[in-house]
Amino acid sequence: MARTTKNKSKIKRASPNYELEVEFLAGLDKFVKKELKRYGHISQVKKNSLILSYSGDLRRLKDLKTVVAVYLLNDFEIPRPKAILGQENFTRLIANIRLVLEQNQFKSFRINAAGRDSSVYKRIAQEIAKATKLKHKEDGELLLRFRKEKNIWQVLIRLSPKTLAARDWRVCNIPGGLNATVAYAMNAMANIETSDYYVNAMCGSGTLLIENNRAKKLLGFDNSEKALECAKANLEKSHTTAKLILADASKMPFKDNSVDIIAADLPWGDAVGKHSENASLYTEFLKESARASSRQARLLILTHEIKIFKNLIKKQNTWQISKELQVYHGGHYPKIYLLQKL
Ligand SMILES: C[S@@+](CC[C@H](N)C(=O)[O-])C[C@H]1O[C@@H](n2cnc3c(N)ncnc32)[C@H](O)[C@@H]1O
Predict the structure, then answer these.
(1) Is 143 a pocket residue for ligand 1 (Cβ < 6 Å)?
(2) Which CATH architecture has domain 180-341?
(3) Does residue 200's CB lie within 6 angstroms of at least one atom of ligand 1?
(4) Most CB atoms closer than 10 Å: which of 92, 152, 177, 182?
(5) Distance 186 CA to ligand 1 centre (A)
(6) b vs e for 43-77, b when ≥16 Cβ sit within 10 Å of the residue's Cβ?
(7) Which CATH number fits domain 17-158: 3.40.50.10190, 3.30.1360.30, 3.30.200.20, 3.30.2130.30?
(8) How far apart are CA 99 and CA 145, in angstroms?
(9) 204: Cβ below 6 Å to ligand 1?
(10) Ligand 1 centre from 60 Cα, in Å?
(11) What does the pLDDT read at residue 11?
């Protein structure tokens, strides 16, 4: 059973107070806290998770923009996982799994635990399958994580079949596609106005365009037709209206002083582009951005080429860094920069 905020030792099936573990990408805690403020009480904030005491419809949480996943937390004061099969514990676990099944359609489940191939977890999986009628599969939709925290065994039941970063609008992805929670946070950093002309340079699959929820005049460009086709499909699915054009970052098709925000998840030289070409690509991009941007313009960048980018910024006098933030993204720690035109 999920822990309750009022009385942790008291266990009731349908308590309206849930204790939830919210997972997010390291670096985004400030945005997550801001978004969750109106959902309940936040505690135990760690590098990439926090605890949310929440009362209300669990379905509301599937629309969160800054978090990767939300889990219903179940504590068991037991010495080893096998004891979960004891009648009282197991009844409580199944009641909470059913609570999550009411929110979403799941046909299968999977277990994530150290030693999940052991006979104990096989037995636990069998019993869960029997009680819930879900199939136990390697890639099952309902994720059940078992872990030990101090002296307590915990089962975390993920509320959604996919992570919340895997947005419903994403029907197409490209190598180096941006995590949607990072794109959302980047846009939040830039204080975008509805009247801003927002250009997503090197837009790839269009993540930054779609996760911008303010600017109305949107344009994305890329030098890859394949990427633009991918962006078109995603834009359509998300009902986002944006112009897409085939263009090179070294020759942007905009008039001087015309764009208010230029956002770019620049090639890092691993999944996209070559490290050896990035210094010249970044130089050209910064030069063209300076020319095309309006007086009050902002430049919103994500890059893992931190050294190259910082050196170029030192050498020019058009942009000044006003905010920077390091985030976790796909095994790397790139930085988000917000620059203001001087
Ligand atoms: C890191 S990816 C962007 C991913 C994108 N944010 C997304 O979510 O899908 C970089 C993109 O830059 C594009 N690109 C690389 N060099 C370019 C150039 N010189 N001009 C325009 N686009 C370029 C690539 O085709 C690729 O789509």
Answers:
(1) no
(2) 3-Layer(aba) Sandwich (3.40)
(3) no
(4) 182
(5) 17
(6) eeeeebbbbbbbeeebeebeebbbbbbbbbbbbbe
(7) 3.30.2130.30
(8) 16
(9) yes
(10) 34
(11) 46
